[in-house]
Specification:
heterodimer; A: 269 residues; alpha/beta; four-stranded antiparallel beta sheet; 33% helix; globular; B: 349 residues; mainly alpha; ABC transporter involved in vitamin B12 uptake, BtuC; disordered N terminus
Chain lengths: 269, 349
């Protein structure tokens, strides 16, 4: 019985020979929501791509259930691990149902291109994301929130135990952000799926994450439960930002209030 | 509870086999095939020596007609030419669909990114330098020329990201260089070989014979089939590299095979009928309007569209200023160039 879904050993990830992440040992807890936070360019997305075998490590290994992820057939990996990159774009004119159906690719063979299971999973994914009414509409005609839901539905149709999502809430208004996060939370609670996502909004990270990983310059600065990680010192250290934390009046998780130049700390006291 | 809308797909399922296809595909394919057939018959009936359409059909089917000359005119002179037009149109359209799919760039047709120019250069060089070579060697030379340009483009423009503008600018650059070298070949070549190359360079099916059709057909059949077999992979590829890879596509392999098919089809088409421009650009767009972007249906639809366009262009080229004959490449360029500009403007928005 393992309680880690993904593990990295001495992982070094590089773009064009420039290492972004070096010698990283990390464990992603199974059945939990893990949130990666950190400033722009700190290597969050790179790490996510490394975990999802989109980026071949320069050195080190990513283990999926104690097997090196690059030793497994890539379609087998795609049945266990789904990844939604940041800001994906669909081909012009592709309908929502066609997009979601693409998520069944890892289960299809040349002879079995559209099994009953495929159809069932696609309809389920459309239902979960409440997109049935838009199923025949082109993806490019949808609003930002609907579009993001359609991509999440594609990842859901992939029916993987592990979901990696790179900023699933970008370009969404607040209500749609919460809608997407609630959807992911439900999937985690109801089906015990392991979720790893990159979020920019620290307060949402604290509220939805079971486990936070704070990164800076390719290194993990702190990890653990939100109230352990999201301290005023850490925010100062990682983001270079002064802040005052209080308890979120709704959830009880840390609520980070940046100070900035407009108000001085003295006035607040 | 609201019921989801009826499916847009035709679904086939037997025990070991299942597939889906956009609902519109069968009707559209049938329509395109019928129009093409009519255009082919009409095209064969036209010329200095008109043959009534019904007699065209009788002659092709081997049935007796009143005029003993029809057999020669239809079967020897006009039928192979029209079939070459049809086949070349299909090959160019499939090549265009493949390149647009792999690069995720709606403007990336082999003619635009210089692949056709590379094929032309190789074929003209062969004609001029080794005048005696058999016709069957032309597709191979053109294929190698096309492949060289494709590899260079891949190295120079593509590896650093699929920027639309960069791909097209580098492609246009290659077209110009290959075009200049082709002119050089023509300047230094023997006058007889050169005149042969010139007719062919404008993009024409004038005087094409069964020999040329037979040299070309295997390329269309082999790589056309390969493209159809790989259409599902193309659907995954056009979602973007990251998505395709995370879905479990072995995309370097798939992309390699698809690119090879595109280059082979474009090369074979160019070596048979010269540079018939814009077909590879237009046909996929028209087909996408007709049946949507899923390649299982898109590829055959684009193929039949491209075939139809070239057959009709050849027909128009012969009818418009008869008895003067315009090469079909000029007709496709007159329609295609504004279409390209329209796509360019639309793409910027």
């Amino acid at each position: 019985m393992t309680d880690t879904a993904l593990t990295t050993r001495k992982l070094t990830l590089a773009y064009d020979g420039n290492p972004i992440i070096q010698d990283l040992d990390l464990a992603i807890l199974s059945g939990k929501i893990t949130v990666l936070v950190g400033p722009n360019g700190c290597g969050k997305s790179t790490l996510l791509k490394g975990l999802g075998r989109l980026l071949k490590p320069q050195q080190g290994i990513v283990y999926l259930d104690s097997t090196s992820i690059f030793k497994l057939p890539t379609k087998k990996v795609a049945q266990q691990l789904g990844l939604l990159p940041q800001g994906p774009t669909a081909p012009e004119g592709l309908t929502v149902r066609e997009l979601v159906a693409q998520g069944r690719y890892p289960y299809q063979t040349w002879l079995q291109q559209w099994s009953e299971d495929d159809e069932k999973e696609v309809e389920t994914a459309l239902a979960i994301t409440e997109l049935q009414d838009f199923a025949n509409r082109p993806v490019d005609s949808l609003s930002g929130g609907q579009r993001q839901r359609a991509w999440i539905a594609m990842t859901l149709a992939q029916k993987t135990q592990i979901l990696l999502l790179d900023e699933p809430t970008t370009f969404l208004d607040l209500a749609h952000q919460i809608e997407v996060l609630d959807l992911l939370y439900d999937l985690n609670q109801r089906e015990g799926r392991t979720i790893v996502m990159v979020l920019h909004e620290l307060n949402q990270a604290c509220r939805y994450g079971d486990h936070l990983i704070a990164m800076k310059a390719g290194q993990v600065c702190a990890q653990g439960k939100p109230h352990q990680v999201m301290t005023e010192t850490l925010v100062k250290d990682v983001f270079g930002l002064d802040c005052r934390n209080v308890s979120d009046p709704v959830a009880g998780t840390p609520l980070c209030n940046p100070v900035g130049r407009k108000v001085s700390v003295k006035e607040m006291v | 509870m609201e019921k989801s809308e009826p499916s847009q797909w035709l679904i086939v399922r037997t025990g070991f086999l299942s597939a889906r296809l956009d609902r519109r595909v069968p009707t559209v394919l049938l329509g395109l095939a019928l129009v093409t057939l009519l255009a082919i018959v009409w095209s064969i009936s036209q010329g200095d020596y008109p043959v009534p359409p019904l007699d065209v059909i009788r002659t092709v089917l081997g049935l007796p007609t009143d005029n003993p000359n029809y057999g020669f005119i239809v079967n020897t002179l006009r039928l192979p030419r029209t079939l070459v037009a049809w086949g070349v149109g299909m090959a160019l359209a499939i090549a265009g669909t493949l390149t647009q799919g792999i690069t995720r760039n709606p403007l990336a047709a082999p003619g635009i990114i210089g692949v056709n120019a590379g094929a032309s250069l190789a074929a003209v060089s062969l004609i001029v330098v080794f005048p005696g070579v058999p016709i069957a060697a032309l597709p191979l030379a053109a294929f190698l020329g096309a492949l060289t340009v494709a590899v260079l483009i891949y190295l120079l423009a593509w590896n650093g990201g699929t920027s639309s503008v960069r791909l097209i600018l580098v492609g246009v650059g290659f077209s110009l260089v290959a075009g200049a070298l082709t002119s050089l070949m023509i300047t230094f070549g023997n006058i007889f070989d050169v005149s042969q190359a010139l007719v062919w360079l404008t993009g024409s099916v004038y005087g094409r014979s069964w020999a040329q059709l037979f040299a070309f057909t295997p390329w269309l059949v082999v790589f056309g089939t390969l493209s159809l077999v790989l259409s599902r992979e193309l659907n995954a590829l056009q979602m973007g590299d990251d998505v395709a890879r995370s879905l479990g596509s072995r995309l370097e392999w798939q992309r390699g095979w698809l690119l090879l098919s595109a280059v082979a089809l474009a090369g074979a088409a160019v070596s048979t009928a010269g540079g018939i421009g814009f077909v590879g650009l237009m046909a996929p767009h028209i087909a996408r309007q007709l049946v949507g972007p899923s390649h299982e249906g898109l590829l055959p639809t684009a193929a039949l569209t491209g075939g139809m366009v070239v057959v009709v262009a050849d027909l128009l080229g012969r009818l418009l200023f008869a008895p003067i004959e315009l090469p079909c490449g000029i007709i496709t360029a007159v329609i295609g160039a504004p279409y390209f500009l329209y796509l360019l403007i639309r793409d910027r928005k």
